[in-house]
Every structure is written in C-alpha cells, then in structure tokens.
Give the backbone structure.
Amino acid sequence: METLKAEKKEKKQETTMRITGAEALIHCLLAEGVDLIYGYPGGAIMPVYDELYKFQDKLTHILTRHEQGAAHAAQGYARVTGRVGVAMATSGPGATNLVTGIADAQIDSTPMVCITGQVTRSLLGSDAFQETDIVGISTPVTKWNYQITRVEEIPEIMAKAFYIARSGRPGPVLVDITKNAQFDELDFKYEKCTGVRSYKPVPAPDSLAIEKAAELINNAKKPYIIFGQGVILGEAEAELKALVEKGGIPAAWTILGLSAMETDHPLNVGMVGMHGNYGPNVLTNECDVLIAIGMRFDDRVTGNLATYAKQAKIIHFEIDPAEVNKNVKVDVAVMGNAKETLGMLLPLINKNEHKDWLAEFDKKHQIEFETVIQKDIHPTKEGLTMGEVMEQINIATGNNAVIVSDVGQHQMIACRYAKFKETKSNITSGGLGTMGFGLPAAIGAKMGAMDREVVAIIGDGGYQMTIQEMGVIFQHNVPVKIVVLNNDHLGMVRQWQELFFESRYASTVMTNPDFVKIAEGYHIKARRVVQRSELKDAVEEMIASKDPYFLEVKVEKEDNVFPMIPTGASVADIRLK
Amino acid sequence: MEKQWYTISVYSENNVGLLNRISGIFLKRHINIEGLNVSKSEIEGVSKFTIVIFTTEDWTRKIVHQIEKQIEVIKAFYHTDDDIIYQESALFKIASHLLFDERQIQNIIKESNSQIVTVNREFFVLAKTGRRHEIDEMHNALEPYGIMQFVRSGRIAVTKAAMPISELLTEFQEN
C-alpha cells in the first residue's frame, strides 16, 4: 500500500509541476518540438528570457538585431522546414517591430507563433511604459491572436496557438503575455491541442467534385495546371508530379509554388504572372481546362481579371473556402488538402499526352529565349546582368541550393532563372513584397537546413533595410551566402518610372556605401565583382566557402526585367520588351 | 450587380477580440456596417452577431467567407429581408409638458403602437419596436415637437428557415 501511494504521488508530480508562467512557456515550446527561436529581449518579457537562460541547452535563442529580423528569420526557418517558426519580442516597440513579418507570414500562409511580453495586467489601458495594444494592432494580419493575463491560461493557449498556426492553411499567431502571468505560478500540465470547436482547418473532400474535375481533365484538349504554395504546404509534390505525368499536362507555377516541382522537368513550363514566362502567361488564355492547385489567383498572376482565362473551364483545388470564387469564378471547386484531393483524383485520370499543345509552349519558349533569356543569362554587352549571376549560382550549386530572395528586380530574376531539384527551396516574400525580408529569412532558412547550401539574393535597396542582421551571421557564424546585386537604384521602381512615368527617377537613385567594407566590419569574408571575367571565380569561391560569404556584384544600372504584364493589362498582352 | 440590404448572422464563440476581427473585414473593404447587434443565441455559450449592410450579393458572399474563416466563428450566413423576420427598437425622450400642450402627441403614441416606458415631471420616454420605416415615420411625426433624445438599436433577426447550429457544433466536435 505504501509503495502504491508513493507511486501515485510520483505520477502526479510527473503530470503537474508548480512553476512560474515564464518557465511554463518554455515547457510549452519544448513540448511543441521547438528548439530554435528568434527574438529580442526587453522589460516586459524579461522573466521569459531569464528562463531561456536556464534552458539554453534545450532551446537556442538567436538574438537578432531588430525584431523585424526575428520575424523574418522565423519565417525563413518555417518555409524551409515546414515547421512552425517562433519569434519573441518585448511589449511596445518590440511587438510593433514584428508586425511587418507577421503581415508577410499571413499573406504567404507561413506557420509562425509570435510571443510578445506585455505590461502587467493592472497597468493595461493606462498608457504604461512600452504598453501598446499589439492584439488590436495585429488582428488584421494574424490567423489568430490572444492576450494571456492569467498564468493558468498559458498551457492551453500555447497549445492552441501552435495548432492553429500549422493546421489547415497555415498562418501567424500572436500570443501576448502580461508580465504578471509570467511571474505568477501555476500547476503546469501540457496537453497538445487536437481541435478547436469552431475551427475546421481542412474541408472534407467532395468525391463528386473530384469526379467532375477528372471528367473535365480527361476530355480536355489543352489542359493546363498552375500550381501554388498549397502544393508545398500540403506536401503534395509527388501527387502533383504524378498528375502532370499521367495526364501529360503542362504545369506552370506561381512565385510561391516554385520548387514544388523540379524546374528541369519536361512538363514544367515555367512561371506565370507579371514577370513570368511568355508561354505560361499567353497560353493561360488559350487552354481549355485550367487546373489551379493551391494558388489564389493573385492580381500579379492574373493581370486584368476581365480577360483572364475566359475561354477555359476552371478547376480550383483549394483548402481555404474564402479563396474560392474570390477573384476568378470557377467551374469546379475541389476543397481539401491537395495531397488528399490529388490522391483521390489520380486514379480517375486517363493516361494522355498533349504533344501539339506542349509544342505551343515550346514555340513560345523559343521566342522568349531569343528575345529575353539569351540576353539575360548570356549577355554580350559590357555591363553585368542579374541573370548571368543567377546562372553562375545554378552551375556552382548544381541546381540544388535554397534560394532566398528579397523584393524587386533581383527577386524576379532569381525566380525566373534559379533552378531547383528539391521542394521548399525557394524562399521569397511573395504576397506582401517585403523589402528587407531576404537577409534575415536566409538566416532562418540556413539554420533550418544546415545540410543545404543557402544563397540569399538581395538588391542594394532591400539589403540596407535589414543590413544589421549581418551581426547575427557573424556572431553565430551562420554559413549563409549573401549576394547583393547592386545597380545603385531601387531597380523595380526605377523600371516603372522609366516605362510609365517618363523616366522621372523620383527617389530611386541610391548612393551606396562600400558594402564589402561593411561585411568586413562584421568579419565576414567579402568580395566585389565588377567585371564579367571575375564572376565565375567569385561565385565558385563563395560556394566553396565553409563560412558565411558576402558577394557584391555591380550590375548594369538601368536594366529592365522582361517579360512584363503592365498593371491592368491582360496576360495575353505580356510585353517582351 | 445590384446593391440591396443584407443581414448577416454570425454564430461564434464568445471571445473579446472577435468583434474587432469582424469589423476589420468590413473596414478593409469600405463597407459600412448599418446595424450591429451582439447577443447570446439559442445555444448556451454561443454568441450571435447580427450585422446589416447595403451592398451587392457578391461582396456579401465574400465577406461571409472571410468572417467564417475566423477561428472563433462557428458559422456565418447572409439573408435578404425576405428570408428573415426582423425588428429594431427605438427610444424617444420627450419633454413632459408637450403631452399636455400638444394634443397630437397622444395620437402619435396611439397610432404608432409604442409604449410609454416612464414619465416624470420633466420628460417621458417612448419605446417603439418595429421595422426601420415604422420607426422613421414615428421619428418624423415627433420631430416637429422636439425630441430631447433619440436612439435606435441594431437590427435583430431570426430566419424563416431552420438554423442547424446545434447539429453543426456536434459535427465539429465529432471530427
């Protein structure tokens, strides 16, 4: 009896512990499998940092140089691993500095949990030092958010936060924790969240819709797939490939769908959208069945909606009911996780090939190759092009790097020309277009995939928005490769000014510092390339480096990215020059 | 597409931040909330928002999808006026001497089918429940005599068709 009693007592001690809220938070993170967080301390989150100090053998905290960097690093980590990224900040300015990253994660469906400290409960609403209504501020850009004011809430809310962030269509969740809840004690017990009553993350697939989709696809003469990030988030890459191959269907990608299918696959026809490839855009308006998989018909993809794919029957594979018929009216909506729905569709698809239809993509590619691609990647003019730098990086990495890009011309060039063999390899800010995303996201991506080569492609504008994160790369020796394509301009805005504002270059000319010296100031190996003859060697040296490496390439100042669909124009009217 | 009145019913968990989330969905699209009422619903622990907007069906459908996407929302519906039974309430505060000085006021009270909630030496309060136009008519009738205070509630509505929220909740819990 005595031993039995003792055993029972011990068991109870195992399931509940009397600890502070701050320590409870750490146990929640550990229970969710978190081993890496990015953040910045401050007054209202100090109890949690004190616990982080005690748990540093189990949980690595990376001190970014700005909270925005923490959010983007967590995003980069999440995008490359498919796991939930975690960022932490104090109240007030710490919390508001996270907001850009949160908004970016929301529009690009990135699973992320942000934890912010908050003034103690009794001071809420008193305009206390570093008090800001971060729950109010972050509401429109979070999938869910919550303010914890009582210590007992911590385990349940944290479990819910992780569940919501990663389930269904993923997204950012913010949990704000008042300081009293961090200091107070509770009987801690953690149970993972397996469901929320009012939240249905994945709609049940409708087999009738799938049969209808199969019928349309089987009868199509010119079927055409456009795939987005839903394929990557749903881990449906194998099913997509099987569908493409069995049906003999040409497939194009949105910027966030890139790398879901290897770029060299014969049925992978390229990128859709404003700076996408010629064939994939023009032929959107010639296909007879358009199969959209895990994409949301963003305006940068569709151009003018009034003239978008009007001739086609449209099938939409989608997990989020709010995306169906939002921008484009569809004929068949197949709700659910792409892995499951494509898996159900596959057996119903007839083996087919569409040689004549594919030949049209080849013809269009030939036109684009001669007028654009050739000049981009094998230029004969004196100035260096962004395209030839990408080409060298492809060669030096064997088409198998993780490419993290910032926002602007270099991003379009990176996404147009980077080659991929593996999924989750293209990390870029698609929906929000956040300049400054690239450098911190590359840190997160590298730390999430230490066995892979991670190359950040950044412009001289975006680089200077988060340049301080070079400090993290130096301090933790994160072996990321940083390429700044420097044209001394905000290139994309300058391009628009040239094309649509009669070359009035309002505030797009940059007088830049010596980037190599700055990198060297952070004790990071650095090199500058100004001549074509040095490029190959410099890229090879960079890729061969075991340490972080900074490469600045001075490119032609006034190059434009083509093809281009001007705002409001039809995909069919894409300009080649 | 033609604009008309739509009533949106939202069944939700009772959460402090949800009103902010829902109103943000309208704000972002520049759609004015013409009426808003939050109350408990027929199910214990479940709140009901009743929101009235004047817009197209296409916008209404998209908004309802965005509302339903919020984690704490159980289900959202939209209805035209024909689909629902609806009422609004109004209170009129009027100076007491007018009841004797202006005999017409007594007729207005009788004809409008409104109730006198309270009377004291300074003022009396009339309560009126009905359709928007009935309340507007009563307001127009009283206005010339002077209204000290006026307030009208948001619309409350029940649908003619059944609302299978309890079934939905059971289904959610089973999944």
Summary: Confidence is low (pLDDT under 50) at residues 1-13 of chain A.
